[in-house]
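Running low. Any example?
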Amino acid sequence: MLAAVAVLWAVPMALHAWVPNAGVNAGSLFQTLLPWTGLGVPLLLVLAAVRRSRAAAVAVLAPAVVWGTLFGGALTDKRSGGGGLTVVSHNVNEGNTDPAGTARALVGAGADVLALEELSDASVTVYSRELAAAYPHHAVIGGVGIWSRYPLADVKAVPIMPWTRALRATARTPDGPVAVYAAHLASVRVSAAGFTTGRRNEAARELAAALRAEPAPRVVVLGDFNGTYLDGALAPVTSQLRSAQREAGDGLGFTWPAAFPVVRIDDVLVRGMTPRAAWTLPATGSDHLPVAATLGR
């Protein structure tokens, strides 16, 4: 029985992309929590040892190998030197009671470009004041904003929802122009009705359409996607971009909730650039951790 459970545990892990999303959106929920399926491996090994079952112990290799294939690379530090552009993205939380402290912490990260999501009308004034010295160029539309050491041009809202949750600008960096997107996809909910993702999925499709039409050869998308890179419902976006954390990070880089992160729903996604390093920053007054990456040409 333990051997059978081990094999059955491995199958949905290996075939996670085919877990159906109909009805309760089980596929998206499973893919969001996919890294945690690895906890079944030591549990099954302990049970196999208790039962002194060699067959069960051998069968546990199946989920172990599948998990290692999916996430084993995250256990190594892939960060390297180089890269001319450092970026930070942070959902600062509309209810953040210390926006000034959050702004000072972000300045301390030394990024060239900041993308902030979930800005309130009141907090924009605070962030603009606290970030002005380090970031003389900024643009805010709705609840998202971009602060930059370099001039910003071609600023426009990206219509992914009825109200503004995405912004695009061109950062005039010393190495040439970079199209920078700040995006905050719609929230999701887990309830008795299942995993509610309809608005988020529609926002992802709208963002994907904007990215397909983006003419710039170098693109950085910073934001809170309210979903993970492996969530198949976000494939319209993620199929066009690469995750800096997956390519050049150290660890799984979980970002939410900040007090005890269990998922990575905030990310740095790129096209036409090479991730050199990616990491999470210490907690601020938000319920999300900030994410950072250094990018090369």
In short: The chain has ten helices and 14 strands.
